[in-house]
Amino acid sequence: MKIAVLSGKGGTGKTTVTSNFAVNIKNSISIDSDVEEPNLHIFMDMKNPTSKPVYTLYPSIDKDLCTLCGKCGDFCNYHAIIPAKNQVIVFSESCHDCGGCKLVCPNGAITYKKREIGKIFNGRSKYDTELHYGLLNIGEMSGVKIINQLKNYTDSDETVTFIDSPPGTSCATVAAVEDTDYAVIVSEPTPFGVSDMKMVVEMLRQMKIPFGLIINKSGLGDEEIYHYCKDENIEILGEIPFDKKIAELYAHGEIFSVSIPKYKDLFNNIYKKIVEGRRSL
Amino acid sequence: MNINEIIVISGKGGTGKTTLAASIIPYLDDLIIADCDVDAPDLNILLDPQIKFTNKFVGLKKAIIDSDKCVHCGLCQTHCKFSAISKDIILSQSKCEGCGVCEFICPNDAISMKDAVVGELYESSTNFGDFLHAKLIPGEETSGKLVAEVRKKAKALALLNNKKNIIVDGSPGIACNVISSITGASQVIIVTESTFSGLHDLKRIYELTKKFNLKVQVVINKFDLSLHHSEMIEKYCSENNITIGLKIPFTKKIVSSIVSKTIPSVGEKNFFKDIGFFNFIDSLV
């Protein structure tokens, strides 16, 4: 089973929730797909991971074969290949690696070269759980390729994989959440939290992925989130109280249910709810 | 005229970009406001904008498959590098990146590329100046293009109305949305928080801004949450010659302001005065 953890708004507690699941749910795998700013490995204290590069392709022009006909430039919707007066100029950062320019070139002048856009790290945490995360190189436009490759580490149906997802609701989040069995939204009871959560709810409903909500920092804001959930018939799976002690543990990169064991049940119970909910479908 | 375009970004989400951007707004004159966090826009909540114009935003084109003409040869499916076409030749809207390979490869002209509306762009008025904001349809591509469009409109409006300053609320992360937000800006404010992950993410976003040769200053939010990490952030900034413009302690007052939909620096003006906020404002112009 694959469970995505997402939020819309940043900083509501995705990584906090994912790490608490990872240490409490036996034999679970966790993946950090927020490849722009991954943090899960810090909390999980990953030891000596192995890494491998992730590549994207971009076109390279054989000047001897190119007749400067301009077909590649006409085809490319990303302005990544532009035939100029004397040569074809390639903007590799703009290339989406669709393969179109090679298809339309009548002279076989285009081949593809690979360029590293980031890395995937594989290993185990200090808590002896399996952990994978991606890291996008600084200056790269999109981490979607890395996210798609990361999802290959999700296991069969017997184990559960928790996927810490990027904030927002654009393509990177879609890639992280796509093909998961369930999504846990983490939000906070503030107007910002509710507004961003609404966009996530819209996205998940479109993608037909069942979901529930964990309210983080409960008690800090107002009641709007409860009214919204009631109106929209959204299940509140559990609540993490606003507690300065939890915030301080977070600041130091620690998982709060490890330091304060009374919270272990919170995550075990939420997980139980998700599993039972799925069985009853 | 040189426009002073100030971008508020953070790397890590939830460190207080919108809170800070909103707090700056009432104290900058000659201002155009823009929210470039197009897939989680929140500035509107505090600004109470009156929308004047709404424009549909067309991103890239997307493929449309005519099932009457399709003979299920599968060529489009095998050529699509984004796995946007299933074995049953059904297009996934959210995966299609609009490259047009399927349209080209289809032997039966069953596929055409059509403009896809991926968001809305709004031009509004507020008590503090004109406000450009947008909303990406959840799950859509091309948010970087929408960000660029919001900034372009903000700049055009500033030139038209002789406004000196633009403030932009950015998005988290370091990829297309953020690159699109900071390219060509006058100055950048990075909002971080004094946590282990705050420092980790600050380093990555700062590396990104270096590539664009931008004037940068850092604001440490909730600095008293961990004085240890606050010191580490200060050390990192001093080693890299980055100005720390402001340090904000944690207070429930800011959350209460936001809950009551009040701009924190207006509702809690004395608190902001005490932390040196108005000197920080002076440093921006």
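qc> Chain A is about 35% helix and 30% strand.
qc> done
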